[in-house]
TrEMBL record:
CDD domains for this protein: CYP107-like
InterPro entries for the chain: Cyt_P450 (IPR001128), Cyt_P450_B (IPR002397), Cyt_P450_sf (IPR036396)
Listed Pfam families: p450 (PF00067)
Organism of derivation: Streptomyces durocortorensis
Family: Belongs to the cytochrome P450 family.
PANTHER family for this protein: CYTOCHROME P450 YJIB-RELATED, P450, PUTATIVE (EUROFUNG)-RELATED
Name of this chain's protein: Cytochrome P450
Region (Disordered): 1-21
Gene3D superfamilies: Cytochrome P450
Residue ranges, compositional bias (Low complexity): 1-10
Domain of life: Bacteria
């Protein structure tokens, strides 16, 4: 197998930090060496990451790139241990790990929950929940007006909306978030990873049983009905896997997006003032945040079904490949020499890839945009002087190189 490459990083592969950390300095260094780089993942599993915007766009839509783990050579050879922290991304059965007809079958039902009409129907719920959470945010603040925005606002908003869409009782929300955090963590021990997966399956099986006994106007009930009407539509494993992926993707990414947007605005007050004065829109803030500080840094996995040459670098067949969204967002070849600058008036550069590209483009993108725009507009309308309560570099980072954000966001609501 030819693995030759002009990439000078080939002999010193990048090791993404399992404990997370800010990715941008490493991304800039790697991008200076090329669009594709070898990586060593936890457990000494070798893979590749696609970092450059143009290379990633090509890779995401390439006909010889698969998502099904049957193409993951090391996994099929029995070289991946149970409890490997990234194994769920490869082995969970659902839309994000399916190809071809299976992917189209699963996506066709899910798409009905994310139509423009359905998202618009959710708008009153999003607006009302946002307003209620802001009232609770103020009540949770200390005497000097400091409160953790991530815990009390950026988290419960998307979790409440996605669970409303799925028909998941509020009693499960906190546990599902905790388990989601463990599943996307890259610094977790094998026993903890396996326990989190087992418990997530147990919780979601209980959700499915509740919706089977008492169907409602929700996506889980619709998936169960489709399975019962036609046994080929959804297998039990696909139902649970789809619920798991929808909950994780449906709240973790929007949670990070809102958190990162607030951080960006607080550290770029001129940009915030521009929006508050009507010189730019909250939608502009969301799109620039998606580009500049993507809520996902490295997303696992895709696998070439043949040796694939991308921007001069060979990615061998069966290699697990990470999609480097945070790196692609600051690629100067696509976004200009000032790609590292947060600028909500940015025009004339390539559109970001942070919501994906090709057949697996994020189905929940319209809902994520609605939630984030609503959250930012109401937040800064009610608290225009809101600012970080600690220096931005001191904020503790998310314990994962998959997600890209901070664990807490202490803010002072009023100046």
């Amino acid at each position: 197998m030819n693995t030759s490459s002009p990439n000078p990083a080939a002999d010193r592969p990048h090791r993404p930090d399992p404990a997370g950390g800010c990715p941008h300095a490493a991304n800039a260094r790697l991008l200076a060496q090329g669009s594709v780089t070898p990586v060593v993942l936890p457990g000494e599993v070798r893979g590749m990451a696609v970092l450059g915007h143009d290379a990633l766009k090509e890779f995401l839509a390439h006909p010889d790139v698969a998502k099904n783990a049957q193409h993951f050579a090391a996994l099929q050879a029995g070289e991946i241990a149970d409890g490997w922290p990234l194994k769920t991304f490869a082995t969970v059965q659902g839309m994000t790990t399916a190809d071809g007809d299976d992917h189209r079958r699963l996506r066709s039902l899910m798409s009905k929950a994310f139509t423009a009409r359905r998202v618009e129907e959710l708008r009153p719920h999003v607006v009302e929940l946002t307003s209620r959470l802001l009232t609770g945010l103020e009540a949770a603040a200390t005497e000097d007006g400091v409160v953790d925005l991530r815990t009390h606002f950026a988290l419960p908003l998307p979790m409440g909306v996605i669970c409303e869409l799925l028909g998941v009782d509020e009693a499960h929300h906190d546990r599902l978030h905790h388990l989601s955090n463990q599943i996307v963590a890259t610094d977790i021990e094998p026993a903890e990873a396996m326990a989190a997966n087992r418990e997530m399956v147990e919780v979601l099986s209980a959700v499915a049983a509740a919706r089977t006994a008492d169907p409602g106007n929700d996506l889980t009930s619709a998936m169960i009905a489709a399975r019962e009407e036609d046994g080929d539509r959804f297998s039990p494993h696909e139902l649970i896997g789809t619920l798991m992926l929808t909950i994780i993707a449906g709240h973790e990414t929007t949670l990070n997006l809102i958190t990162n947007a607030v951080r960006a605005l607080c550290t770029h007050r001129d940009q915030l003032d521009l929006v508050l004065a009507g010189g730019a829109s909250w939608a502009d803030v969301v799109e620039e945040t998606l580009r500049w500080d993507s809520p996902v840094s490295y997303f696992p996995f895709r696998y070439p079904t043949r040796d694939l040459t991308l921007d001069g670098t060979v990615i061998p067949q069966g290699t697990p490949v990470l999609a480097g969204y945070s790196a692609a967002g600051r690629d100067t070849r696509a976004h200009g020499p000032d790609a590292a600058r947060f600028d909500i008036t940015r025009t004339g550069t390539s559109r970001h890839l942070s919501l994906g590209h090709g057949a697996h483009y994020c189905m929940g993108a319209p809902l994520a945009r609605l939630e984030s725009i609503t959250a930012l507009e109401q937040l800064f309308t009610r608290f225009p002087a809101l600012d970080l309560a600690v220096p931005e570099p001191e904020l503790p980072r998310h314990a994962s190189f998959v997600g890209n954000s901070v664990r807490t966001l202490p803010v002072r609501l009023k100046g």
